[in-house]
Specification:
The protein is mainly beta and about 550 residues long. It is about 5% helix and about 40% strand. The chain is built from five helices and 32 strands. The protein has a 17-stranded mixed beta sheet that branches. Strands 12-11-14-15 form a four-stranded antiparallel beta sheet, with no helix packed on it. It has a three-stranded mixed beta sheet with strand order 6-3-9, with no helix packed on it. Strand 7 and strand 8 form a beta hairpin. The longest helix has 11 residues. The two termini are about 25 Å apart.
């Protein structure tokens, strides 16, 4: 869960922990940092329960507000071709102001077009206003609006149906595939909607409002961090064949729309899981036994590996029992040293090493607190697996935070050093601490990122509400469609901060089918295996008045 945790009172933190988060989520290094967000050992419990471990070309048409394709009035236009004030001013193949203007002497090259003497050369007389070009009557200027066919999904690409979206003055509802269609949409446009994450037949965990502002695509995919209905169940895992002294055992489950992980003992573990999709689903469990260096606590030898398909069924509360055969192979599991450097950021530093698989399972091999700027980790050589080194700096419990990660195949074919560069977190400008939130409040910040996510965390009396505004600007306001999520009351603590995902290189990329949410960012999960980064500012308090 995102937010300036240094401001969250301990009593509120405990309440949030009890109502929003489970006990078996992924461990991240206190990335947004208060007790309500921490799992065992003071690390972050991500995503509710184990199953939510820790679980990216403009199609604006012609003649948009960005300017006409060739509306600078014909740099190569000749006076003779354009001396046609009384006829349709076509300006020939030059794509000039005549192409966009209305027939007659007053060729209005776009919305800002001025009356032009077409007897002169287009290069001299179309004027700068010709580039405004949203309403000319020529064939290219006719596309002042577009049809938008979009899709709404969570960070695991799970379609979100039944969601009401506000797109301009239109109200739309996504179908079971998360899809929607809107006609006559002027570009650029804004989209706002509210989604919830709930347990089937149970409580709402969190409600999120999202607003994507300045969108230009006709085929957008809107990605959100947390949403959907989840089933709950259990699976019981019993290791066998382990030697003495007892090894560390990392367990991970890969699900169609998520992943889960925990460390288990040699006596096994009852693993509570939740998942989205069908009430009964197939998954894969992976287990890895390894020894740790007594001084560093990092892996020093890999002793056994096992994976098995499993079935999860919400109707079977006791869960199925699975044996994990971790008998050491006759030949030791090959391993190799992965080394590299981390640049940027400030202490405290935390590194993690992940081993992920195509079925979404991800094993946490190591976590190094107070890490230095250089690293070297022993990783196993497993076919089809990917190793990811994650580095973070700062702690949102005291201020800003940044992370970055690099991945490569879990084989020693490429033993070059990994170079990890941490991004610069955004810096808040206004409003300041304890500012009164009104419909006119403007949020401003500084950042070197192309796209920002302005996030408000609002702790309501029942559960947490969050509002996210995704924009390429350096200022934003909360849209009216999302203001109902803010409940007045001094006891309802509200904070704001700004996030930046490294994949969000433009609004076009943010709304692409590839997605933009970093899978190791705060309150986000997703498939591992690609490079990425994330940064967040510190936070400021806000006051929601009883009568805004």
């Amino acid at each position: 869960m995102s937010g300036p945790r240094q401001l969250l009172p301990e009593c509120l933190a405990a309440a949030l922990l009890a109502t929003v988060w489970g006990a078996c989520g992924d461990l991240k290094p206190n990335t947004r940092g208060d007790a309500a967000l921490e799992g065992a050992g003071g690390e972050r419990n991500v995503g509710g329960s184990a199953a939510r471990d820790g679980g990216t070309g403009l199609d604006t048409g012609a003649g948009t507000a960005d300017g006409l394709p060739s509306s600078v009035a014909g740099a190569s236009g000749t006076a003779g071709q354009q001396e046609m004030a009384g006829a349709a001013a076509t300006a020939g193949q030059q794509g000039t102001a005549g192409q966009q203007g209305t027939a007659g002497a007053a060729a209005t090259a776009g919305t800002g077009g001025e009356s032009v003497d077409m007897g002169e050369t287009g290069a001299e007389d179309a004027g700068p206003d010709a580039s405004a070009g949203a309403a000319g009557s020529g064939p290219e200027a006719a596309a002042t609006s577009i049809t938008v066919h979009g899709r709404l999904v969570n960070a695991w690409n799970l379609p979100l149906g039944g969601v009401t979206l506000s797109l301009g003055d239109q109200k739309l509802v996504s179908d079971d595939g998360g899809e929607f269609t809107a006609q006559d949409v002027r570009v650029p446009y804004d989209v706002s909607f509210v989604v919830s994450e709930t347990v089937a037949g149970g409580n709402t965990r969190v409600t999120d409002g999202w607003s994507f502002q300045g969108v230009t695509r006709s085929d957008p995919t809107f990605w959100v961090s947390r949403a959907g209905t989840f089933w709950t169940g259990n699976a019981n895992f019993i290791p066998s064949g382990v030697g003495s002294p007892a090894p560390s055992i990392a367990l991970a489950v890969g699900l169609p729309y998520g992943r889960a992980r925990e460390d288990i003992g040699v006596n096994g573990s009852d693993f509570p899981l939740d998942w989205s999709g069908a009430a009964q689903t197939e998954a894969t469990a992976h287990a890895l036994a390894f020894a740790k260096d007594p001084t560093s606590g990092l892996p020093s030898e890999y002793q056994g590996y096992f994976f098995t398909p499993i079935t999860l069924d919400q109707a079977t509360s006791a869960g199925n029992r699975y044996t994990l055969d971790l008998t050491p192979p006759s030949a030791p599991i090959a391993a190799w040293e992965l080394s590299g450097d981390v640049a940027g950021g400030v202490a405290p530093r935390v590194n993690q090493v992940w081993l992920s698989f195509p079925d979404h399972a991800a094993l946490l091999l190591a976590q190094e607190n107070r890490a230095s700027e250089t690293f070297s980790y022993l990783v196993p050589e497993l076919a089809g697996a990917t190793v990811t080194v994650y580095a973070s700096a700062g702690a949102s419990s005291t201020g800003s935070f940044a992370l970055a990660h690099r991945s490569r195949a879990a084989t020693p074919a490429d033993i070059s050093r990994l170079e990890i560069a941490l991004p610069n977190p955004p810096i808040l400008s206004e409003p300041g601490p304890a500012a009164r939130l009104t419909p006119d409040t403007v949020f401003r910040w500084q950042t070197d990122n192309a796209v920002s996510v302005v996030t408000l965390l609002h702790d309501g009396p029942r559960f947490t509400h969050r509002i996210h505004v995704v924009t390429a600007a350096k200022s934003a306001q909360i849209p009216e469609a999302l203001s109902s999520l803010l409940e007045p009351g001094a006891e309802n603590a509200t904070y704001w901060f700004v996030e930046a995902h490294g994949r969000a290189t433009s609004l076009d990329a943010v709304t692409s089918a590839e997605g933009f949410l970093d899978p190791l960012a705060d309150d986000v999960t997703g498939p591992l295996g690609a490079d990425g980064s994330y940064a967040a500012s510190g936070g400021q308090t806000l006051v929601v008045p009883a009568s805004p």
